[in-house]
Write a structure and sequence with these properties.
Length: 612
């Protein structure tokens, strides 16, 4: 088991390293300059030891020439200036690479996330994903822009220091080398623990961020139910859990640093005792001992710095693994290698051929169970049914947020799985029951339906949605800030902006999910007229909870437990569908039912076997 664990860790290390190198590769020249500066600064620092030897043996020795002392000091200052220049170059380019790689990684993860099918987010919390994109990439920026440079510089100092130790005094160097295995062992042992705890710590921090985001997003509900005390306790639990994991990681790093200091400085003390006696016996000069002590301290300091940074590198490895997991996530909805093209004269005809579908997270039950429908171009179809009947699922399938497990959905005679998702969705617009607005201005949110739209087109769409009047009363009109999620607007105002967005998109297929549910009576009347205009000449699918909103559509399909149990007009369904008639009796009084059943259009949807 231990061997398998080591193999997994080795494979993970290689995967993380290769991925990070892939992000650094585009900036190879900056990396080369940083590496040259790194090598130069390490070499200059090491050469200071030889300068120290000359300074002691030739500058401070009895009867030394003052000119030799001056020359040694001038050489020392020149080396200091070179070290300063090299340090500036190294710091600038290494920090630049860290910031650049962090930015690229954020963009790569976000760009990949928004292409994943919605099913991925059923099992992955949005707050945790946000934490990975922000906190984890910030950690990587710090490590790449600082810790890696420190580790590499100290590694070079360690190697160079060992070589110069051998050159200066092989006997004393042997004593130093005896301590190396004693130092490396705790680094390896504690390093594995630090990496595991770092991964756990990042996960706990992500949970904290996720909880905070959810609480703030739903602050009105939180306060309405006086849930502050309970949420304080839950937040305390999240924070304390994260702290406990972090405390364990800190304890491991502290033990690592302590062990390294004791072992390294103990070896240096022993070496100084032996070297001091050699100087007294005349076997080596004072300058040689000073140079040796300098290099020994340099090697010891390098090992200590590496042990300190090693913890940061392990944290970065844990953060990298979390980010790579997101980048490696596969979308279940992909474009075909060679997508088919839709006809130029697109009408919006839909055909559902015995489709079966279950959600990836709920494989035991069909959400859609053998549905077949033919929807003529330009006609309207209402989907009615109790909660959980499959109405919203049908919308998700039409937008190809998910693919059916059996059967096929045809758009203008083409299986939508053979179309590029972007091409399919460019002909569809949706108005959800709960309008979604993004942080920005009113105009930005309307233009979401067509990013290239002019101001005149945006205003025309708002007028068609009966939104122009209230928009002009806002402090800055179309430039007014709507707040997060449109919090500065009423529900009805948000809904009309969402409808204006759909108007601007000018789709061939219009999807309305109870689009007038958030409106007062007057606004509903105005928007209903706008929708009637918008629906003309377009294929429209309407999800309806209130039957009064769909009595005049071409066809109504009754859904129950994922099946179409009846289709027809409002009047026809009152006569032949007990389920529909019961819903109608709950929503209408007897006179309204009779009124609503008069002068209805002939059905445009052809019922199938399971809809009879």
């Amino acid at each position: 088991m231990a061997e398998q664990q080591r193999e997994r860790e080795k494979s993970s290390n290689i995967r993380v390293l290769s991925a990070m190198l892939g992000f650094i590769k585009p900036y190879r020249w900056q990396a080369v300059l940083a590496s040259i500066a790194l090598i130069c600064t390490a070499g200059i620092t090491l050469s200071i030891g030889q300068g120290l030897r000359l300074l002691i043996d030739q500058g401070f020795a009895e009867g030394a020439d003052p000119k030799a002392l001056n020359d040694a000091l001038l050489l020392f200052m020149f080396m200091v200036l070179l070290l300063a220049a090299g340090t500036f170059t190294r710091f600038y380019f290494v920090s630049w690479i860290g910031e650049r790689v962090s930015a690229d990684l954020r963009k790569a993860v976000f760009n990949h996330m928004i292409t994943l099918h919605p099913g991925f987010f059923e099992t992955n919390v949005s707050g945790e994903i946000q934490s990975r994109i922000t906190t984890d990439t910030s950690l990587l920026q710090t490590v790449i822009g600082s810790s890696v440079s420190i580790a590499l510089r100290n590694f070079l100092m360690f190697l160079g220091g060992l070589v110069l130790l051998f050159v200066t005094n092989p006997k004393l160097t042997g004593m130093v080398l005896l301590s190396v295995p004693l130092v490396v062992a705790p680094i390896l042992i504690f390093g594995r623990r630090v990496r595991r705890l770092s991964r756990d710590s990042q996960d706990k921090i992500a949970s904290v961020g996720s909880f905070v985001g959810e609480a703030i997003k739903n602050i009105k509900l939180l306060q309405a139910f006086n849930h502050q005390a309970a949420d304080r306790q839950r937040f305390d639990d999240y924070v304390e859990s994260a702290f406990q994991v972090a405390e364990g990681r800190i304890r491991q790093r502290a033990w690592l640093s302590t062990a390294v200091i004791v072992l390294v400085l103990g070896a240096v003390s022993a070496m100084m005792w032996v070297g001091g006696h050699d100087v007294l016996a005349g076997r080596i000069s004072g300058g040689e001992l000073a140079a040796f002590i300098f290099y020994a301290v340099m090697v010891a300091a390098s090992v200590g710095a590496i042990s300190e940074v090693f913890g940061d590198l392990q944290r970065a490895a844990g953060a990298s693994e979390r980010l790579l997991e997101l980048l490696a996530a596969k979308s279940l909805v992909t474009a075909p290698i060679v997508p088919e093209a839709l006809p130029a004269d697109l009408g919006g005809r839909l055909e559902l051929q015995q489709i079966f579908f279950h959600y990836p997270s709920r494989p035991d039950g069909w959400a859609i169970n053998g549905v077949s429908l033919n929807i003529a171009a330009g006609s309207s179809l209402a989907l009615v049914g109790s909660s959980g009947a499959g109405k919203s699922t049908m919308i998700d399938l039409l937008l190809r947020f998910y693919d059916v497990q059996q059967g096929a959905i045809l758009f203008e005679g083409v299986d939508i799985r053979k179309l590029a998702p972007d091409d399919l969705r460019s002909h569809i617009a949706m108005v959800p029951q709960q309008p979604v607005l993004f942080t920005g201005s009113v105009g930005d949110n309307i233009r979401y339906g067509k990013p290239s739209a002019s101001d005149e087109e945006v205003e025309a769409a708002a007028k068609a949605a009966y939104a122009d009047d209230f928009i002009r009363t806002l402090p800055k009109g179309y430039d007014s800030y709507v707040g997060e999620g449109g919090i500065r607007l009423s529900g009805g105002q948000r809904q009309r902006i969402a409808i204006a967005r759909a108007v601007l998109a000018d789709p061939r297929l219009l999807l309305l999910d109870e689009a007038t549910s958030a409106l007062d009576a007057e606004s509903e009347y105005q928007v209903q007229k706008a929708l009637e205009t918008l629906m003309k000449g377009r294929t429209t699918i309407v999800i309806a909870h209130r039957l009064a909103t769909v009595v005049n559509v071409d066809t109504i399909a009754v859904l129950d437990h994922g099946q179409v149990v009846a289709t027809g007009s409002h009047a026809e369904l009152l006569q032949r569908s007990e389920l529909y008639a019961r819903w109608a009796s709950l929503q209408f009084d007897e006179g309204q039912v009779g009124l609503g059943s008069q002068d209805l259009s002939a059905p445009e949807v052809q019922p199938t076997e399971n809809a009879q």
